[in-house]
Amino acid sequence: MIPEVDIYVGNYTIIDQEVFELWVQGYSVAEAVSVLQQRGELDTWGVSQELVTSDTADHYRTFGMLEKLLLTPTKLAEEWTFQLEPAVQKMVIQKYYEFDDIVIREIIGKKLSGRTRKDLDDVAEKTGVLLRSCRRQFDNVKRIFKLVDEMSGSVVANIQASFLLPTHLAKKYAAIVFIINNRFETSKRKLNYLTFEDFCVCASHMMTSWTTSTTAIPGPPDAAHDDTDLDRDFLIELREFKLLLDREKEHRNVTLSHLRGKIPDRMCSEVEGNFKTYSRGIINIGCALNNSRDLRDFFVDAVERVVDPCRQARWKASELEIFLQVYADAGSALDIMTKKPRGKSDHSLRGTWERYMNTMRVCVSQLYHS
Q1: pLDDT band at 107 (very low <50, low <70, confident <90, very high)
Q2: First to last CA, the chain
Q3: Residue 286 forms beta bridges with which residues?
Q4: How many CB atoms lie within 10 A of CB 115?
Q5: CA nearest 289: which of 367, 204, 211?
Q6: What is the pLDDT of residues 164-214, one digit of tens each?
Q7: Is the overall model pTM greater than 0.85, yes or no?
Q8: Residues 6 or more apart from 133 whose CB is under 8 A from it?
Q9: Which of 359, 360, 342, 341 is nearest to 350 (CA)?
Q10: Could you give the dihedral angle defined by the CA atoms of residues 290, 294, 295 and 300, in that order, rounded to the nearest 10 degrees?
Q11: Is 260 strand, coil or helix?
Q12: Within 13 Å, how many C-alpha atoms sit on residue 15's CB side?
């Protein structure tokens, strides 16, 4: 007697999202089955472990073949072997390119070299993330960086066009590209307390305010605008802030007059007594950013010269934010800010100061919150 067999034939490849996530996270077939068993999948469906193992292994074979297309997501929609619903395409691409912040925190301070990839065992041990997943995340960062590093225009737009990532994820990768491209120091012991989110927030604001993307350059859109390359003319203009050091007393008095009533009297006294420390830390960082070495040490200098003194004075985060805003506004109000930067006639030093301080306020507050 011939047994009855139900056969279903369809165009679309079936992707089990739960199993796909386990594959992305670096679990082996046996490990994935164990996780599914712990979640009660066998009891829910009333199936044997052997059947779940066979099904999971089949999914893993499909994912392994699909991975070649995920390296170039734009080809996924054109592929006939693995036809996926549009919503499923978006899901698998996003899940494949998602990352663990703690892993990326370790990667951004290193070169994207083969040697670094071999040393990811240390990253896996330190973060508790499986080695396979660490390698996937490293390879994704390297692939995206290599492709978009030579492209002009908005790095977020370039990443989205090339890898079909959602905006929030593309922005994170853009910050990674920016940090690596400018070789910012992130590995010093003094910076160990900082998270990837801290660097991401600071990098995003630098990209918005300090790069050539914010410079009005005639020509086609994005022709000479790039939000990964810092605006060198702007960095050179920052040296003009040495003028503020000569007007330090006036700057302090204006700052104090606007601070009173906004923060406790004890903190006003703190500002009055230590204004030179805070102000020179902020100004000297800006004056040195045109130097490549000092630029790379931006985060180290920001912590040592500004954040640490504020910690010692036991500023509350909200008080510090108010001080930085008032300090920036007081600097803008000084008459020397009407001066034109050398060789410039289209803007005053005030514009340069505000462009610098808008980002410094965010960075110092972010680094201090941590």
Answers
A1: very high
A2: 72
A3: none
A4: 8
A5: 211
A6: 999 999 999 999 999 999 999 999 999 999 999 999 999 999 999 999 876
A7: yes
A8: 24, 25, 26, 100, 103, 124
A9: 341
A10: -150
A11: strand
A12: 25
